[in-house]
Specification:
Layout lengths: L2 H18 L8 H24 L2 H18 L10 H26 L1
Length: 109
């Protein structure tokens, strides 16, 4: 297994770990978490595209992982799954896909 795939898998494991850790509430935490979902999945998608050298496979893997990380939370008493989080994950995956392809296009330009 090459380093690119290892980094992609490690990032996914970090997302899964973050999905089960307890979170303290407070002002602005919800908005911060929403941005965290988007950013983490944008990075995940970029890593998978870079790793697999395939934008469609990278996007599909990331989109496939979006509900999995939320489903993990169904089994954790201090966490709860949220459809909005799945939506934010998907937005992040699409954003990472778009940014990666834009950078690729600009550098080949």
């Amino acid at each position: 297994m090459n380093l690119r795939k290892i980094l992609s898998i490690l990032w996914l494991l970090l997302i899964c770990l973050g999905s089960v850790l307890p979170i303290k509430g407070g002002p602005g935490v919800s908005e911060l978490l929403d941005m965290g979902h988007i950013l983490s999945y944008a990075i995940l998608t970029s890593l998978w595209i870079w790793s697999l050298r395939s934008s469609s496979k990278g996007l599909l893997i990331s989109l496939g992982c979006t509900p999995i990380t939320e489903l993990l939370q169904l089994f954790i008493p201090w966490r709860s799954a949220n459809v909005l989080d799945v939506f934010n994950n998907a937005i992040g995956a699409l954003l990472g896909y778009s940014v990666f392809l834009t950078i690729l296009w600009l550098t080949r330009g």
